[in-house]
Design goal:
Helices cover 26% and strands 22% of the residues. Helix 2 crosses helix 11, helix 7 crosses helix 8 and helix 11 crosses helix 12. The longest helix is centred in the first third of the chain and has 16 residues. With 567 residues, the protein is an alpha/beta fold. Strands 10-23-24-25-21-22-11 form a seven-stranded mixed β-sheet, covered by helices on one side. A seven-stranded mixed β-sheet has the order 19-16-17-18-12-15-20, with no helix packed on it. The protein starts with 10 loop residues before the first helix and ends with a helix. The chain has 14 helices and 25 strands. The structure holds adenosine-5'-triphosphate (ATP) and magnesium ion. The site of adenosine-5'-triphosphate has 14 residues, from helix 2 and strand 8.
């Protein structure tokens, strides 16, 4: 792909350039990533993190990490920790600016009192259901609450008593007094506080009223002096409300900019759906290598660099548009792994080969290039001996035309080693091939015959006595459907949802694989290219020292490069 096709500039930069030219924020650029700690981060969040951090870097500005932790019932410490780890792994640096909206609870409370005093907020006795029922619709205005015109003193008294724990959950709310007839439903006296006797992961039992996200979010950005509050499009209709709050309080105004959220083919992205996959055990956790979570991608073998490349290539859109192609993400990954992953030999479905004219007690150390794309990676020695394993499907007793691998009488090259010719296939009583008997050409060491004779097939192999037996987890897409959330009407009628599109073959556990000896020492997170199979990464959850488990990261076939070449 030509570099000018990359989305290097975007409409957000244009806005920032314009602000800088006008001196709107005294030349400052200050962005943030504001997750709610109610789940693990996914690749959509990665897009947002890299966008916000990237802008701060481009403009020599600052980047904050702030948890919008206003909902104690759904939020957990585990999520906070995973988010911190993920943002750090992506390479976004918040320096000393790690914040929590819960740190601002006292300030938000004071601001609420300020609005009550100004006659701009009131305590409502309607239940949450009644509030919803009187909110109106897109075409009909809402109805004013009978408590809307309470005197200021009474509101102040009730609000304080809400804070002091005098009322049960749901008994009262604090609402902004804006306009029940507003065309934008977000302006129809939105709830600012609810009574909720729940323990908060940071503030403990200090509060029994909690601010709504909409009341906390804009003010938190204001407190932090954020210049450009970048968020996804669903917040466009909330912007007038955020502006209203900031105007009424007369405090510093960031500029909110919305962009289209990232979607990806073969993937569901909402935290609610990802949580279901975890709870209903379709996967082994939020960090399952099939999950689009950052921790899942990391476990699968993705690199931060490949995600950064992908985020840059998909760019930012102002309007909801197309869904990013999983093939592009995988292309970015291969591009990066191609440079950094060592080529090694792993036989996943072993078939023994005895080289009958090779001395029984001899072991040769054969030099193998670690990465032809990167000479600095050097070479390593691989043991070769009389008994080796090759891939079972690299042999066919009755091959079709153009089968260039091994068959009776055929000659192939063993990668880095010798030419071998198949003399005989040995079968067991059931007729299954259990061993091949071959001869080798001692003159072909290194994989070239001195007489210039050519072979078309090159096979990977391991020495039977030196290889170690290990486990490989062969992952495919979790969903077999390109758009898993699209459910046909008859499927929906039958009660089916996105889980109906789960690929039943998304994980195959391959045991008894025979792997090159050096792989025994591989450490969690190490990445390799298994020649002819694809890229693999040592699992960071279930591996043990000397017993690595290899996750299949991605295959070698690049469908994206093929598509791009056609254009
Ligand atoms: P989800 O809808 O997936 O559950 P969320 O929006 O509720 O996610 P938050 O923790 O509120 O999750 O998101 C933090 C930030 O990440 C927000 O600024 C949000 O706009 C952004 N974000 C969330 N999903 C995406 C996405 N798919 N693409 C880009 N940015 C996203
Ligand atoms: Mg959200």
């Amino acid at each position: 792909m030509a570099s000018d096709e990359r989305a290097t500039s975007n409409f957000i930069r244009d806005i920032i350039d314009d602000d800088l030219a006008k001196g709107t924020y005294d030349g400052r650029v200050h962005t943030r990533f504001p997750p709610e700690p109610n789940g693990y981060l996914h690749i959509g969040h990665a897009k947002s993190i890299l966008l916000n951090y990237g802008l701060a870097q481009t403009y020599g500005g600052k980047f904050n990490l702030r948890f919008d932790d206003t909902n104690p019932t759904k939020e957990e410490e585990e999520y906070v920790n995973s988010i911190i780890e993920d943002v750090r792994w992506l390479g976004a640096d918040w320096e000393d600016r790690l914040f929590f909206a819960s740190d601002y609870f006292p300030q938000l409370y004071e601001w609420a009192v300020q609005l009550i005093k100004a006659g701009k907020a009131y305590v409502d006795d309607l239940t949450p259901e009644e509030i919803r029922a009187t909110r109106g619709t897109l075409t009909e205005p809402g109805q004013e609450s009978p408590f809307r015109n309470r005197p200021i003193e009474e509101n102040l008294d009730l609000f304080e008593r809400m804070k002091n724990g005098e009322f049960p959950n749901g008994a009262k709310t604090l609402r902004a007094k804006i306009d029940m007839g507003a065309g934008n439903v977000n302006l129809r006296d939105p709830v600012m506080y609810r009574v909720l006797h729940a323990r908060h992961h940071r503030t403990g039992d200090a509060w029994c009223i909690y601010p709504m996200y909409d009341w906390a979010h804009g003010q938190s950005d204001s407190v932090e002096g954020i210049t450009h509050s970048i968020c996804t499009l669903e917040f466009e209709d909330h912007r007038p409300l955020y502006n209203w709050f900031l105007d009424q309080l007369g405090i510093y105004h960031p500029r909110q900019i919305e962009f289209a959220r990232l979607d990806l083919t073969y993937t569901v992205m909402s935290k609610r759906k990802l949580l279901r996959l975890v709870q209903e055990k379709y996967v082994d956790g939020w960090d399952d290598p099939r999950m689009p979570t950052i921790s899942g991608l990391r476990r699968r073998g993705y690199t931060p660099e490949s995600l950064r490349d992908f985020a840059e290539r998909v760019g930012v859109a102002k309007k909801k548009g197309s869904v990013a192609d999983l093939a592009l993400l995988e292309h970015c990954l291969r591009d990066d792994l191609n440079k950094r992953a060592r080529r090694v030999m792993a036989v996943l479905d072993p078939l023994k080969v005895v080289i009958t004219n090779y001395p029984e007690d001899r072991v040769e150390e054969i030099e193998a290039v670690n990465n032809p794309e990167n000479a600095a990676e050097g070479t390593r020695m691989v043991p070769f001996a009389r008994e080796i394993y090759i891939e079972r499907d690299d042999f066919m007793e009755h091959p079709p035309a153009k089968f260039f691998r091994l068959s009776p009488g055929a000659e192939v090259r063993l990668k880095h080693a010798y030419f071998i010719r198949c003399q005989e296939a040995v079968k067991d009583a059931a007729g299954k091939i259990v061993e091949l008997r071959c001869t080798y050409d001692p003159a072909s060491r290194g994989g070239e015959a001195p007489d210039g004779r050519k072979v078309k097939g090159t096979l990977h192999w391991v020495s039977a006595a030196h290889a170690f037996e290990g486990e490989v987890r062969w992952y495919e897409n979790l969903f077999s459907n390109e758009f898993p959330e699209e459910i046909a009407p008859e499927e929906a009628a039958a009660g089916k949802d996105f889980t109906a599109h789960i690929n039943p073959h998304s994980l195959r556990i391959l045991t008894g694989c025979r792997l090159e000896p050096m792989l025994k020492e591989a450490r969690p997170g190490d990445r390799f290219q298994f020649l002819r199979h694809g890229y693999f990464c040592v699992d960071n959850k279930f591996s043990a020292p000397g017993r690595p488990i290899f996750n299949r990261t991605v295959g070698l076939r690049d469908t994206w490069a093929k598509l791009a070449a056609k254009d």
